[in-house]
């Protein structure tokens, strides 16, 4: 019997048992769809994180407190960065363009009968250019505010809408930690950054934040949460990092490990890429288990099929069919089931990726490699798990098979 005839017979057998064939394919369909969708969503998360960091600009550096070990093991970082460090960097590091220290802390905000807890950021005028923020209406923190410890606040677009609805917030007074602040500006919408909604930030002068909201928390001066720095250009980032590290080591009299860290956009992108790639691989591996389950389903149903078709197998062997003909037909049936299930699962996976892209900010990517691998693996699994029932069918003795039937 030639290959074409075997394919026709296998196809006719599967079509005549639609329910059984459909249930057999179901595990392969779910497995393929899961693998492709999970890989696509994982790549979407990685793309989103990379876009958000790239939006900061290639020249930005972040100086964070604490040693590498402390940053990896605790959320309560030591108070090792102060305002004087930021001022020294601005005046003594030639590769730096601007410096914007900040103090960040969640505080209770209230306006009339409305209360909410949001991140309050105490910072300086340079924050706008260093972090690429823009003011929509009103103004931002200025040098006079810093000198006078002025109680002024600039609201993110969403927190302004949450507190004031459709009324104009400019000139109104809100309370932050029971301290009255005048709203002097509204920020342009910025969106989320690594899961944090930047449109719900409230900005105040750094000195006001330190003296009236946080209080002195470091014996060495005004403690800052971290320092935002922009290098003069992209080529100066490495030089800026080197110069900042040397300056802070001298200022902090460090002889052992650093009590601070200087991270560039490229460093953070590398870390984020490693994490998201690991998560994507883990999701794909978990989803791939369903492919294995699907293969077991193929073997199970094929074994049942061999039992049900004992008479057919015995009759075919009695009229001259060889073992390889029987083996080939059952293998082709398993391959058709796996390939069809793989195709349907691929279409469902691609549809799932498109749906996620519509309803979420994730720009889920379609991975040709994941599609090829999933379809190949599902087809291979079908063939591998189809070998045992196919061999069992091929080894049936025709006389025994006809008697059994």
Automatic annotation (TrEMBL):
Q: Where are the transmembrane segments?
A: 21-42, 281-306, 326-359, 365-388
Alphabetically, the GO molecular function entries are: transmembrane transporter activity
Q: The ABC3 transporter permease C-terminal domain covers which part of the protein?
A: 285-398
Q: Tell me the ranges covered by the MacB-like periplasmic core domain, including all copies.
A: 21-247
Q: Where in the cell is it found?
A: Cell membrane
Taken from the UniProt entry, a GO cellular component term is: plasma membrane
- Which membrane topology describes this protein? Multi-pass membrane protein
Q: Which InterPro entries match?
A: ABC3_permease_C, MacB_PCD, Macrolide_Exporter_MacB
Q: What keywords appear on the UniProt entry? A: Cell membrane, Membrane, Transmembrane, Transmembrane helix
Similarity comment = Belongs to the ABC-4 integral membrane protein family.
Protein name, as recorded: ABC transporter permease
């Amino acid at each position: 019997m030639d290959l074409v005839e075997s394919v026709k017979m296998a196809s006719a057998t599967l079509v005549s048992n639609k329910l059984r064939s459909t249930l057999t394919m179901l595990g392969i369909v779910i497995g393929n769809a899961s693998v492709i969708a999970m890989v696509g969503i994982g790549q979407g998360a990685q793309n989103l994180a990379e876009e958000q960091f790239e939006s900061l600009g290639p020249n930005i550096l972040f100086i964070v407190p604490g040693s590498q070990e402390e940053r990896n093991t605790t959320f309560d970082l030591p108070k090792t960065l102060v305002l004087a460090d930021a001022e020294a960097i601005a005046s003594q590091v030639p590769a730096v363009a601007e410096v914007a220290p900040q103090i960040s802390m969640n505080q209770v905000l209230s306006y009339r009968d409305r209360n909410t807890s949001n991140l309050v950021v105490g910072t300086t005028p340079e924050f706008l250019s260093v972090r690429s923020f823009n003011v929509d209406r009103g103004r931002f923190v200025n040098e006079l505010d810093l000198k006078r410890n002025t109680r002024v606040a600039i609201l993110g677009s969403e927190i302004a809408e949450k507190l004031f609805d459709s009324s104009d917030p400019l000139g109104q007074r809100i309370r932050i930690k029971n301290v009255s602040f005048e709203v002097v500006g509204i920020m342009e919408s910025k969106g989320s950054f690594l899961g944090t909604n930047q449109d719900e930030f409230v900005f105040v002068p750094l000195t006001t934040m330190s003296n009236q909201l946080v209080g002195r928390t470091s014996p060495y001066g005004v403690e800052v949460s971290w320092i935002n720095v922009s290098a003069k250009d992209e080529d100066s980032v490495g030089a800026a990092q080197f110069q900042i590290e040397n300056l802070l080591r001298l200022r902090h009299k460090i002889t052992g490990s650093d009590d601070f860290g200087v991270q560039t956009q490229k460093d953070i992108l590398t870390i984020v890429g490693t994490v998201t790639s690991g998560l994507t691989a883990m999701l794909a591996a978990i989803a791939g288990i369903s492919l294995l389950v699907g293969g077991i389903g193929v073997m199970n149903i094929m074994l049942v099929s061999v039992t049900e078709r004992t008479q057919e197998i015995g009759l075919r062997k009695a009229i001259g069919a060889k073992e390889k003909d029987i083996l080939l037909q059952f293998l082709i049936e398993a391959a058709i089931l796996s390939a069809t299930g793989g195709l349907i699962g691929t279409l469902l996976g691609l549809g799932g990726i498109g749906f996620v892209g519509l309803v979420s900010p994730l720009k889920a990517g379609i991975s040709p490699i994941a599609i090829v691998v999933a379809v190949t693996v599902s087809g291979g699994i079908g063939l591998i798990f189809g070998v045992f029932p196919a061999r069992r069918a091929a080894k049936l003795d025709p006389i025994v098979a006809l008697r059994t039937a």
